[in-house]
Structures are given as structure tokens and as C-alpha cells.
Amino acid sequence: MTTHDNDAFKPIATVDLAIFSLSPAGLSVLLVRRANAPFAGEWALPGGWIHIDKDLDLEAAARRVLKEKTGVETPYLEQLQTTGSAGRDPRGWSISIVYIALLSADDVEKRRDAMAEDAEWRPVEGDGVGFPIAFDHAALLKEALGRIRNKVEYSSLPGHLLPARFTLSELQSVYENLLGRKLDKSAFRKRMAEADFLEPIEGELRRASNRPAQVFRLKDIKSLALFDRRI
DNA sequence: TATCACCATGTTTCTCTAGT
DNA sequence: ACTAGAGAAACATGGTGATA
């Protein structure tokens, strides 16, 4: 047996998740307050060790952590990056596989009671949350936000943050919120029709003190539709 | 040619007012 | 008090002309 067979020479392997949802304040990210050292009492992205006895693969590990923290088995999960170094965790050499998860407003509302006690939604401010977070998670969050903002330009991503049923006005409003700019209504509707990822719900109209709006749902809640050009 | 800003029109609901 | 009609409000949809 060589010294390298010893556990002390194996890297720490974890999955970390940047879990996003939409709140009235805009895009929000789920953070957990760490109970133990290192960084005890500080906020961090939710994450956990990979359990080789339980997790069939990396995505399964990510889904398990997500369910533990939110109670939600998200329909949309995407691997962002793998990061690893000797210095990112004071406990030793560590590898983290980072995932982005998108939760619909419905999921967040329905599973509010199932959310971990140490977890809280924090509104995104610029490239972070406006205060320092543990480990290298500020950099990971910045990376995740970059990926999301880039994808908003050419995919159905905002639709995955809305409730299961939504109107075109609500969808446009989410795009505008994430892009930080106003969109032309005509051009927006044309692009949505071309992208063909929405399905009108037959006979379902949103009634208010105005003309009723057609209610839509995503054709496929498990994957993003990509546009052939920017919105 | 695509995009954008603007405009016109259609639809529905709400509020106000006059008539019964 | 109740009802009907007019007008306003809000939003969906589609068209047009200017511009890059």
C-alpha cells in the first residue's frame, strides 16, 4: 500500500448549485447559512458531498442536493463548470461540479414548507448578492449569472422561471427584467412564435379588467429552446 | 431585410349617470 | 333600488413607415 491510497490524499468532491427563481424583486438565488466550519455562519451556495453509494452520477448528486435544500425536483438543471484547486477549501484539495438550476414560481410556492431551514432566497444585485459569500462561491455565482444572462438573449430560459401557466405579457416582462431593457412587443411576439416553444392552453384565458389574455405553457419543461438569433 | 417605434383597431370590464 | 347605456381603461393584435 502506498501513501497515496490513504484518504488524506483524495480530493474532496462536491456538487454546488446556483439555484435561481424569480421573486417580486427580480432574479433571486438560493443561499444557505453554513452551520459548521469552515465559514461557519456565512452564506454559501447550496452544495453537498458526492455520495458514491447513493448517487448514480453527477447529475443525480446535484438533484439530490437540490431536493434536500428546496424540496423541488427541478425540471431544468445544467452543468456550469468543474472547478478544483488546493486552495479553494481550507479542508484540503477540493473539486466541485457546479450546476445551475431554474425553479418556477409555482415550484417555489408549492414547496415553501419543504425548503431547508438554513436556506433563503436572496435577490441578485449586479454580479452577486451584494455581500461576500463563503469559499469561491462569489466567483461561481458570477459565472452562473453570466451564463444565464447570455442565454436569456437566445433561449427560452425565462419561461422556466415563470409559473406553469403564463401570458405573453408576463413572459415579456421576465425577459425585460433579466435583460434590463425594454423589448418591442411586436418583435417579441414574432420571435416567440418563430421559436415555437410555447403551447396555448385551449380555452384558457386570463381575465382581468381588460381584454382576456391567452394563457400559454412550455412545450418542454425539461430543456431550453434555442433561438437562431438574439432576441 | 430585420428591427423598432408608433398607431389603429378589437375585445372586455369597470364606472358613472340617467331613466324607470 | 335597479337597470341599461355610454364612455373610459387596459390590453391583445396587427399594420405602417423610418432606420440601420
Relevant terms:
5 helices; alpha+beta; Arc Repressor Mutant, subunit A; 231 residues; Nucleoside Triphosphate Pyrophosphohydrolase; 3-stranded antiparallel beta sheet; DNA-binding
Sum this structure up briefly.
With 231 residues, the protein is α+β, with helices and mostly antiparallel strands. It is built from 5 helices and 10 strands, in the order E-E-E-E-H-E-E-H-E-H-E-H-H-E-E. It is 25% helix and 31% strand.
Describe this structure in words.
The structure is a single chain. This protein is α+β, with helices and mostly antiparallel strands and 231 residues long. The chain has two domains: 3-152, Alpha-Beta Complex (Nucleoside Triphosphate Pyrophosphohydrolase); 157-218, Winged helix-like DNA-binding domain superfamily/Winged helix DNA-binding domain (Arc Repressor Mutant, subunit A, Orthogonal Bundle). The protein contains five helices and ten strands, in the order ββββαββαβαβααββ. The chain has helices at residues 58-70, 105-110, 137-152, 168-179, 185-195; strands spanning 12-23, 26-33, 43-44, 47-49, 76-85, 94-102, 119-123, 166-167, 198-208, 210-218. Strands 1, 2, 3, 4, 5, 6 and 7 form a seven-stranded mixed β-sheet that branches. Strands 8-10-9 form a three-stranded antiparallel β-sheet. The radius of gyration is 20 Å and the shape is elongated. The model has no long low-confidence stretch (mean pLDDT 82). The structure holds a DNA duplex (20 and 20 nucleotides).
